[in-house]
Prior knowledge:
The chain is of the alpha/beta class. It has a single domain, classed as Glutaconate Coenzyme A-transferase, CATH 3.40.1080.10. 14% of the residues lie in helices and 24% in strands. It has a ten-stranded mixed sheet with strand order 4-3-2-1-5-8-10-11-12-13. The protein is globular.
Amino acid sequence: MLDKHDIAKRIAKEVKDGYYVNLGIGIPTLVANYVREDISVEFQSENGVLGMGPFPFEGEEDPDLINAGKQTITTLPGASFFDSSLSFAMIRGKHVDLTILGAMEVAENGDIANWKIPGKMVKGMGGAMDLVASAENIIVAMMHTNKAGESKLLKRCTLPLTGMGCVKKIVTELAVLEITPDGFKLLERAPGVSVETIQKATEGKLIVEGEVPEMQL
């Protein structure tokens, strides 16, 4: 099975030259570390940064440079800073090509729940609802199961929804899956992981067509 850095490496392969990309909190923030050096990509953070770079090395952190998750970041030459109204104008105006988010649950129809567990204290949904409502391409980075071993890829989400029918692709420690009208389509397996293992870990409908290749990181 993969770790969170491997998931980020695989998602980084989805980032294309010229893309404007928003990275959500958690695993998605790692994607900036693994994008190919021969392409030009602009990473946007809804707290008002365009042109984020990789995480800083220890001892080189600037406490005034943070992402939406309050992690210290670096910026690339030409980076810009702006207020929330302009940041969300970029998002709502569909100027972001790819949004990469974490999730607590994803349903087989592309619904996503990633902001609230009833009964637990939360700070709010942040920019997630704007991002899922506005983005044309949403990839979810998540673990396939929770700590109890229960599937997080479901027939229907049980937690309050962030967005409906919006997720396009999911990358977990076990697999790469695409949302289709018929359910989760298995595109790739993590190295050494069998289709049967993925099937057991997926509550929603899993579509398997032919030989499923292993992920290339």
